[in-house]
Here is the input.
Amino acid sequence: MPRSLRNPKALVGIAIVLAVLMAAGLADVISPHDPFRQSLRARHVAPEFDLAGHFLGTDHVGRDVLSRIIHGARISVLVGLAAVALSAVLGMLIGLVAGYYGGFVGAFLMRTADIKLAMPMILFAIAWIAFFGGGLVSVVIVIGLWGWVPYARYARSLVVTLRESQFVEASVAMGASSAAIMFRHVAPNLIGPLAVIATLQMGEAVLLESALSFLGLGVQAPTPTWGSMVADGRSYVDSAWWTVTFPGLAITAFVMGASFLGDTLRDLLDPHTR
Here is the structure.
């Protein structure tokens, strides 16, 4: 086993990410209660630490907090994977074109990236949702379009080096087209390094989704999301601390686990750290 995988931080990251993925995939099976079922008689029941009852308590309308956290993992995983995939593909394409052609094309694309960085994320999200409406698809697109710059910059730096490689020069000498060289020969060399960025951005994507849901710009009620659970419980933090604490811990744990996993992949794929 590689030394990096024996690192306690790597094991913790893998365990957390796997636990969230399993919770998302088996939510209907492992949830102790219906996450949508309301009961004002069971409103703000304190954590009972008994799986037969409400293990993590109930919220302001009597819904089971543990069940909503488990089902909320589905939204977090879906948004994280879809948004990161969109960012990675878009960023790799832009970086590939900018690095291979260079000149005016490369400068224009990189200046576009700089302009994008100057725009506040929340302002961009509000503008998008105002024009196209909210919902899961809008959240994925907003986060995906927001996160492509790191991929583009790193991909460009790699492509600038790779285009001077002997295998690229040999392909040019054999008459290969620019598209064939970029996508058949250069792009496969970008997947490993960009996968590290993608893993690190999984946690950031979940954090952004939670922030949008907290502000009411994300997935709408009654669909459970970790961010909306924190938003619903913030008014009762003095009398029902568990409605905010446990969803917040879920967000923190997943972001930390994704960060640890990203560090592990970087150690595995970066020859300078071996």
Summary: The radius of gyration is 22 Å.
